[in-house]
């Protein structure tokens, strides 16, 4: 996963008030 894209996904999750931990974005993208 590209770091910049991964970061954007995390930003979206944070905006939805969800706790984001390292690796969780992988599950979201799946």
TrEMBL record:
- InterPro entries in the record: Biotin_lipoyl, Single_hybrid_motif
Q: Name one Pfam family in it.
A: Biotin_lipoyl
> Which ranges carry the Lipoyl-binding domain?
2-29
Entries under SUPFAM superfamilies matching the protein = Single hybrid motif (SSF51230)
Protein name per the record:
Lipoyl-binding domain-containing protein
Organism the protein comes from: marine sediment metagenome
